[in-house]
Specification:
The protein has helices at about 1-10, 40-45, 70-80, 120-130, 160-165, 165-180, 190-205, 220-225, 225-235, 250-260, 275-290, 355, 380-385; strands spanning about 15-20, 25-30, 60, 80-85, 100, 110-115, 135-145, 155-160, 180-185, 205-210, 240-245, 265-270, 295-300, 300-305, 305-310, 325-330, 335-340, 345-350, 360-365, 375-380. The chain is an alpha/beta fold. The chain has two domains: about 1-165, Rossmann fold; about 170-385, TIM Barrel, CATH 3.20.20. The strands form five sheets. An eight-stranded parallel beta barrel has the order 9-10-11-12-13-16-17-20, surrounded by four helices. It has a six-stranded mixed beta sheet with strand order 5-4-3-6-7-8, with helices on both faces. The protein is elongated and about 75 Å long.
């Protein structure tokens, strides 16, 4: 369960340009406030925490304002009295800085926050409570993203390092850096695959994934595919072997091992949870051995010429994801949503010398279709334009 919540936290990671509450600038941001809109997940998260057994009585307080829902959930889960700390006293009514506790309280306060970067917010809240005659004896954060060793008196569930090393995070970071277009190279020869992919990457700046059907290429030619690996490195691509594994466990594992060169492998969702768990375990072993992750994507539907051939409506809400990072044709909370068969126009962006600080560069990107997804798969619609 702890790992499942780790994956949930990872799905709330956003990439971009952010200023943190500490004033630091970061290219990623953990928006754990999303938990307040997911009551089931919030409950599971709080169940990873436990009340202290060292003291007879306890108050829970969330660092204002993002952690107040965490404190409320903790209070309701463990029947612990809650107090609410304001950033500044109200200028009307009782003018209280701390709400919810009349008179002195003989117990101690557990102070909870969502993310710790420098600890400034937690320290400020602790000082305000202590100035109001409360005693803070316990400090908890969901995610520790500090650069130094955590303070000895700080409890935390996860670290930034754990989140950033997950296959899901690695995939999302790659899409953020390179773009959200996948080129479906359904071509019969390695020469065509390499040549067209190279030409497309010269024209389009946002191709991040190369999807292949290995069974279309001659076996001998495929085995001599070193040039494909050079292409991958030169254009910073992830290689997706779209083999759609759909077999009993022992055969499915053999198929996975056969394509151990791939970054991504597709699996039909109908194989069932037992096979999915075994595939995830083997994918992790392969990734650990080669020092970069093997990722799996679930195929939940098949279409041809815009018509559905098959759709799987299985419920994966209780699935514990590890190396499964994406879903084709169906939105599954936490996973990267992939749409195939997209035909779009293109747009051109011109960056001036001042903007690039190096030289004038024209970048061509595909316009979105108006239907949001994390990764758009295109084949013929790209080939027809070169």
């Amino acid at each position: 369960m702890l790992y499942k919540m780790l994956f949930q936290v990872a799905s709330m990671l956003k990439f971009g340009e952010y200023e943190l509450s500490s004033g630091q600038l970061s290219d990623h941001y953990f928006d754990l406030r999303e938990f307040i809109s997911q009551p089931k997940s919030l409950k599971l998260l709080i169940q990873q925490l436990t009340p202290s057994s060292e003291f007879e009585s306890e108050l829970i307080c969330g660092v204002p304002y993002g952690a107040i829902p965490l404190a409320t959930a903790y209070s309701m889960e463990y029947n612990v009295a809650q107090i609410m700390l304001r950033k500044t006293p109200k200028n009307h009514g009782t003018r209280n800085l701390v709400e919810g506790c009349d008179g002195p309280f003989s117990g101690f306060v557990t102070l909870i926050d969502d993310v710790w970067t420098t600890g400034r917010s937690m320290r400020n809240a602790q000082k305000q409570l202590e100035d109001a005659n409360f005693i803070v004896k316990r400090k908890i954060v969901i995610l520790y993203r500090g650069k130094e060793e955590p303070p000895s008196d700080l409890e935390y569930l996860y670290t930034e390092e754990e989140i950033m090393s997950l296959p899901l995070t690695r995939f999302r970071q790659h899409l953020h850096q390179r773009g959200r277009t996948c080129f479906a190279a359904d071509l019969p020869t390695m020469h065509e695959i390499v040549t067209l992919t190279h030409r497309l990457n010269e024209r389009y700046s946002d191709i991040s994934v190369l999807k292949l059907h290995p069974e279309l290429v001659d076996v001998d030619e495929w085995c001599a595919g070193e040039e494909l690996m050079v292409l991958k490195q030169n254009h910073n691509l992830l290689l997706w072997a779209d083999i759609k594994i759909c077999e009993v466990p022992h055969i499915a594992l053999k198929q996975l091992e056969k394509y151990s060169w791939a970054d991504i492998i597709s699996v039909m969702s109908v194989v069932g949870e037992e096979t999915l768990y075994k595939l995830q375990e083997r994918a992790k072993e392969i990734g650990d051995k080669r020092k970069y992750p093997m990722m799996l994507v679930l195929v939940n539907s098949l279409h041809t010429e815009g018509r559905p051939l098959w759709i799987d409506n299985s419920d994966f809400s209780d699935m514990n994801w590890t190396n499964i990072v994406g879903s084709v044709g169906k939105r599954i909370p936490g996973l990267i949503y992939i749409r195939a068969g997209i035909r779009t126009e293109t747009e051109t962006e011109t960056k001036t010398e001042t903007e690039t600080k190096t030289k004038t560069k024209t970048e061509t990107k595909a316009k979105t279709t108006g239907i949001f997804c994390d990764l758009e798969v295109r084949g013929r619609s790209l080939i027809e334009r070169i």
